[in-house]
Amino acid sequence: MTTTANRRLSTSAYDFINEPYLLSLLERRSDPGEVREVIAKSLAKEPLTVEETAVLLGIPSPELWEEVFQAARQLKRDVYGNRIVLFAPLYIGSECTNDCLYCAFRRSNREVVRRTLTPEDIEAQVQQLLDRGHKRLILVFGEHPTYSPTFIAECVRRVYAVRRPKANIRRVNINAAPMDHEGFAEIKAAGIGTYQIFQETYHHETYAKVHPRNTRKGDYLWRLDALSRAMEAGCDDVGIGALFGLYDWRFEVLGLVSHAWHLQKHYNVGPHTISFPRLRPAAGVKLDETYRVSDEDFKRLIAVLRLAVPYTGLILTAREPAWLRQEVMEFGVSQIDAGSRIEVGGYTEAGDAQVLEREQFELGDLRPLDEVIRQLLVDGYIPSFCTACYRLGRTGEHFMEFAIPGFIQRFCTPNALTTLMEYLVDYASPETRAAGMKLIESELAKLPDGPRKNALIERLRLIQETDQRDLYF
User: What pLDDT is attached to residue 8?
Assistant: First the structure.
């Protein structure tokens, strides 16, 4: 059997993330003609090379940036329609052996409360989430021996086992430490969806500065190649990300695109999602503002990522304030969390106020799920809890076979509407229900007449008039 070390050397993303070369690309200034050529390629739904992405990052004028924003809006509509997928984070444990300078959970922080949920605690948290209407979760773990592959797999099975009337969690994603091949395989066998690992920063000097070398996370390559190991272990849906504010945001965008190309080349499918959180205040943390990302640059990085990776989901988290989330949604975001609590035990114990000594960082959007859904509906989006592709095997390479030709819209809009109807019937406030029924009527009017539309109408009727749920195409 090939060793982990040999596998890492043979497929390392390090070869794709040539730091001096990426930094040199940031020195260029782009002219309008080449910018428009790159935009045209992206609108043809072709992924951009690192060099082409750098062309967009080198735009010198606000007027050209407006063309990028408009292209990102169009590409979002063309590939994803007006759907926004919803999920919630569930923090399982805050123990950690790492000492990341930006994180409240770092081992040297004496201000934070440490806790790991028991099986009974997990069940109580999931019941609360189900009662609010959630169907999709991401479980979050610190990096600690307690959170072994076996422990994580048991947590996943525990979440799936929780049942409420007409409700259960249909997809569990993971945000946890890098594993070896055997660890990833054990967790995958528990039925997870996406395994998400953020590199935090692709810049070597900065990585070493914020991640002390005497911890496991101090090993840049171990973390960088983690998702390669995950792919080789059978996890065909993986998520990458960078923590914006640690280094130059433009470099991090190039790092993410380079990483995506590495996965595409070696495993025939890129990352399922890309995340781009910004640094946030946290208990016991003194933030370095040197590379703070302004709101305007935040909009730019989202638009560039949308154009660079047309078929990769972009996740916008509740770190950002509600007004900004509402504004940048149209630039290419396809998934958001809502009604989120990021303190361990937060869904049953925290109340409405933030408890900073129990959180990994401070949230910017504390609106409950129903309020977020209502705003999405008012803005013309379809809130979706759909999990059909994952449960029917339309993942990894198979997902791309459907998505790239655009056939996925045959499934996504109908499935989004059925999960929305579930929420409206079972959980929504009267105001949200009224807005949702109006949107469903509008979306049905757009669909061509035929057997598929008739089947969708029948599914929506069954959800309204019976206890049948989880009806998907």
Answer: 43
